[in-house]
Amino acid sequence: MNDPIAPIVSQFEQDPNAIRIQKLLCYVCRNQWQSEIARFDVSQWRSLIDEVKAIHPTFEQLRSKLTHQIGTLNKSKEYAAVGQIVLSVLERAYAQDAVTIVTAPKRSTQLEQDINIHRIKKLLIYTCKQYWEANSYVIEQASVSDLIDELIKKYASAEDLRSGLHQIVKTLNKSVEYSLIAEIILRAVEPLYGKSQERVALDHTQPIDLFDVRREILKSANPLQAKVLLFSSVYYLFEFCQQDWSNLKLYSLDGLLRTVVIQAETIEEFQQLLNGKASQLKDAETYLEIVPVFVRSLKKNYDSLRQRLQLAASISSVADTTIAHATRAIL
């Protein structure tokens, strides 16, 4: 008999961040932080996963609570990465839940009831109004429904919204924490744009394969260094510490490349972004030499590739990260 929990337990057990995953999940369920915790066995992992699902019946409730709890930690940057692992793996445990069609009013209600509502409103206001609101009273009085309407008017498509939100988040001091808030907003708002059957069919009949591009890149560039450069361009500047290496393992070269291409509207912007990040990395000269390799590999078909990647992103409505196949997690 198929056991859907077994691969989830196995993945958590084998993850290099297993202890941190335990601590975070226990904190999410019991609201108490355990500094010292023994490594769980299989039965304990099963019990913990059952506890998580019992307390958080839906995946959105889990995402909301996890985001809130991470924001209370001293090491929120490190645990934000762990939280992404948890969500990517546990999403499968919720996959069999019934899918319901949610209207716009229900979507705004969903956000209003979110434990992170204060941060959600702050990010919505900043995205819509282009200023950072610090007045708690103003934030409290802001209408989520009106902000969502304004957001949809500002961004014509779901892919534009996703790209715009992530560009804005990268400008914030707490970009890691707010990237999770952005994902909560995207999950609620993206379905309001709608997707035609014709576009879905197009996506299924024309899968996007970056094999040729990747092959050209790896002819002249070290794959690990290529990932470091792309990671720095998507998330934060790589500092070559143990946590950074652990985070890098979560992402595939293809997934990181997809994200950078979607964010950079032209090959010139792509080149400028990579050059800027390469010049800030340790051993900058090495990374600056990699940039022309990427540009040569993408220049010929950049516009058409970007359009197809945007279309695929809007149809799938998944996070803009592709977890490396080696970890058996989701990006």
What can you tell me about this protein's structure?
By secondary structure, the chain is an all-alpha fold. It has three domains: 6-94, no CATH class; 104-194; 200-327, no CATH class. It is built from 19 helices and no strands. Helix 14 crosses helix 16 (253-263). The chain starts with 5 loop residues before the first helix and ends in a 15-residue tail after the last helix.
The chain-level mean pLDDT equals 79
- How many strands in all? 0
Give the overall shape: globular
Order of helices and strands: HHHHHHHHHHHHHHHHHHH
Main sheet specs: none
Strand content of the residues, in percent? under 5%
Indicate the percent of residues in helices. Answer: 55-70%
Main structural class: mainly alpha
Rg = 20 Å
Q: Can you count the helices?
A: 19
* Total count of domains: 3
Measured between the Cα atoms of the first and last residue, the distance is 29 Å
What low-confidence regions span 5 or more consecutive residues with pLDDT below 50?
98-104, 195-205, 315-331
